[in-house]
Every structure is written in C-alpha cells, then in structure tokens.
Amino acid sequence: MKELTLKDVQNECLNILIEVDSFCKKNGIQYSLAYGTLLGAIRHKGFIPWDDDIDILMTRPNYEKFKQIYKPSKGFAFVEGKDSYIALPRVCDTERTIFKSTLPWAPDDNLGVWIDIFPIDGVEDDRNLFKKRMIKNAELYKKQLAARRSIPKLSLKKSFVQNLKLICRKIKYCNLSLSKINNAILQQCMENPFGSTSHCSQLVCTTSLDKQYYSKAIFDDYVEVEFEGRRFSAVRDWDAVLKLNYGSYMQLPPVEDQVQHSSDHTKFFWKE
C-alpha cells in the first residue's frame, strides 16, 4: 500500500471536517475548531504546516444532539463507545484510506483518516476541586494508553494456534481493562452536567491537568474563521482559549518541535 504524505493526510482530514461542518450547520449544532486546528486557523489561516490532524470541540448538549442524529455520508463513519478503545469520539474515512498503528484505538481495521471530537463538560467552580479531578483524570488516561499499547501482536516464534490463544486471552483482558477505564472517564464527564456550574473543561482525553479551565460563557458565542480557504466555526473568544492552551500562541515553537504529530506511532495508507 502507498503511504499518504502529510499533505494527503491534511486533505483527507479537511474533507471530513467539511462533512461534519455541513451537517452541524444544517442541524443547528454548535462546534468550534480546537487545539492545533484552531491555532492553525488563527496563526496560519489553515493547518499548522507540520500538523496532521483536526480537532473540534462541542459542548456536551451539542455533542449529544450530534450523536443522536448524525448519519454519516457514504465513505464516512462515526466511532465511539463500544466500537472504540478510547473515550473520545471520531468521524473517520472508510473508503479511501486505512491506518496502521502501534497505538490502536479501535478494533475495526477498516478505518482510515479521522477527525477528533472533544465534548466539553461541566466542572467544579472551586479551582482546587477541579485540580484534584484532573489529577485523577490524567491517571485514568495514562492507564488507557498503557492498556492500548499492551494489545498483543503476532509472534513469529510461536505457532498460529499459540498466537491465536495468546491474542484471544490478552485482547479479552485489554478490552475489559479499557472498558472499565473508559467508563470511569465517562462517569467523570457526567458528574457536573454542562451548564450546572460556571466552568467547563475537556475530560475525555487530557494530561494537561488544570490548564483547560474554561468559563462556560466562552461557549455561548461563535464566529467563523478562515481555515484552508474555507470558513469554519470557532468560539468568539478564541484568543482566551488559545492563551489557556498555548500561552504566547503566535510565536512559533523551536524548529526541533515542528514535527508531525502522530508519525511515531501511526501511518496512513491509500486503500488498494
């Protein structure tokens, strides 16, 4: 199979974002570009040159509406819950590309390039309580990563039957472990319904501890920003979000840090 170039990956991600953006606009669902995607929109008017993914945020009510009514167009799939080893949902290509990874995230080996959807949930208004929550949250995420990395691979030193028994045993253990971890993460997400407090955060996939401590009001208003020659949704106060995540975000990182995000563990290929 032929491997996708960085530009190929970016183009395929953009196609998925266009699909999601179109659906959200037609159905009154609010979302915002997020993380490196939002930073790229503001600093580069498109992808950060070395970035290889797209992230969006949705408040939990918007996400629940999306999950309930989204019907992917041909060639796309929505993956979350029992169909995934992670607590964060994704919309994936299923027709043109495929991924291979040493950090598996789904049992379906027919999935390709994806974009990440990060739900935003309510959190404590007491910053100290929020810090304690995020310490626990980061530990859960680290355990999830460890379990995903332990998903077994075939050994050339063992027979097919030995390999099969080993894989069945380990995958059963990993799936049970991952299910418990992800259920614990999702339980945290539900403890403070969005809107029941004045603050919110992203809880499904983070090791950033208490950095992402947002005022709920940030997610009340949205604007459109330019990204790769198109207009996509972003929270109006994107400056506050970027400062919380990156500090002086208009300053480029050192050259040695300008590297492709997932190239050390994931490769994308064109389907034959």
Task: Describe the protein's architecture and organization.
- This protein is an alpha+beta fold and 272 residues long.
- 38% of the residues lie in helices and 19% in strands.
- The protein contains six helices and eleven strands.
- It has helices at 6-26, 35-44, 60-69, 127-149, 160-190, 238-246; strands at 32-33, 55-59, 76-79, 90-93, 97-101, 114-123, 199-201, 214-215, 222-227, 230-235, 266-270.
- Strands 1, 2, 3, 4, 6, 7 and 8 form a seven-stranded mixed β-sheet that branches. Strands 5-11 form a two-stranded antiparallel ribbon.
- α4 runs antiparallel to α5 (160-190).
- The termini are close together.
- Residues 154-158 and 160-167 have low confidence and may be disordered.
SSE layout:
Layout: H1 6-26, E1 32-33, H2 35-44, E2 55-59, H3 60-69, E3 76-79, E4 90-93, E5 97-101, E6 114-123, H4 127-149, H5 160-190, E7 199-201, E8 214-215, E9 222-227, E10 230-235, H6 238-246, E11 266-270
Parallel strand pairs: 2-6
Antiparallel strand pairs: 1-2, 3-4, 4-6, 5-11, 6-7, 7-8, 9-10
Helix pairs in contact: 4-5
Termini separation: 6 Å
Structural category is alpha+beta
Radius of gyration: 19 Å
- State the helix count: 6
Q: Which consecutive residue ranges, at least 5 long each, have pLDDT under 50?
A: 154-158, 160-167
Strand content is 15-25%
Average pLDDT reading: 90
Question: Could you state the order of secondary-structure elements as H and E?
Answer: HEHEHEEEEHHEEEEHE
General shape: globular
Biggest beta sheet attributes: 7 strands, mixed
The strand count comes to: 11
Percentage of residues assigned to helices:
25-40%
